[in-house]
Write a structure and sequence with these properties.
Blueprint (H helix, E strand, L loop, with lengths): L14 H30 L55 H4 L22 E2 L12 H11 L4 H6 L3 E9 L5 E8 L3 H12 L7 E3 L2 E13 L4
Parallel strand pairs: 1-5
Antiparallel strand pairs: 2-3, 2-5, 4-5
Length: 229
């Protein structure tokens, strides 16, 4: 036997309608919710336009410094000049005015006399080596003859058998004279003294020359003392 349902009790026939109604209610609820949120935001938020803000500027008055008035200086009191009227018959005392020029003493000014300061003569340079060495008159041969002829052997040294070579150094001036003899190598005081005596008594030498000019030259001369056996 087939069971038949009535149309009013059949729920499947209105299923689609209920689904559409549910969608409508859901959409209506969402719409109301969105509208209510927007209204609250608009009511709570306050929008301020920058153009509506008016800034009140404080106006500071310009003050000028007070001008102090300086009182004018007091006027100088001028005394009235008193004129003494003198009669023509009155005697007037004469006063003599003496100027400083009449009492001045004239001083003779002499021209400044230049003071001449003599500069000390510069000592000529002493050369050690020159282009043309100084020379004994006649050469070295004549110098040896001069020494042999003029040397006097000290008796004390002869008795003691003392002999040797004394080296003497001296300066030949630009005029050929011999100055400043000294012993740079000694043998015996007696022999040294005799060597200095012989050198000091030598005649003038031919002076040395440097670049065509006569100059002072330091010369070294050995003087030999030998005993004859």
């Amino acid at each position: 036997m087939e069971i038949k349902k009535s149309e009013k009790a059949n729920l499947e026939s209105k299923k689609f309608t209920w689904i559409l109604l549910g969608f409508v209610l859901v959409l209506a609820g969402h719409f109301v919710a969105f509208e209510w949120t927007q209204y609250e935001k608009e009511s709570e938020g306050v929008l301020i336009d920058a153009g509506d803000i008016v800034l009140e500027e404080e106006i500071i008055p310009i003050t000028m410094p007070e001008k102090k008035t300086v009182p004018p200086p007091p006027q100088a009191v001028t005394q009235a000049e008193v004129l003494n009227i003198v009669e023509d018959d009155a005697e007037i005392e004469e006063t003599t005015i003496v100027s400083a020029e009449d009492q001045a003493e004239f001083v003779e000014i002499q021209d400044d006399v230049p003071i001449v300061v003599e500069e000390p003569e510069k000592e000529e340079e002493i050369f050690q080596v020159v282009e043309n060495q100084p020379e004994f008159p006649g050469g070295m041969g004549e110098l040896m003859k001069y020494l042999q002829k003029n040397i006097k052997y000290p008796p004390v040294c002869q008795d003691q058998g003392i002999q040797g070579r004394v080296v003497v150094q001296f300066v030949v001036n630009s005029d050929g004279s011999i100055v400043d003899p000294v012993v740079i190598k000694s043998v015996n005081p007696h022999l040294d003294k005799e060597a200095l005596r012989v050198v000091s008594t030598m005649p003038k030498w031919k002076p040395g020359e440097q670049r065509g000019k006569k100059v002072r030259v330091r010369f070294t001369l050995p003087v030999s003392f030998r005993l004859q056996s």
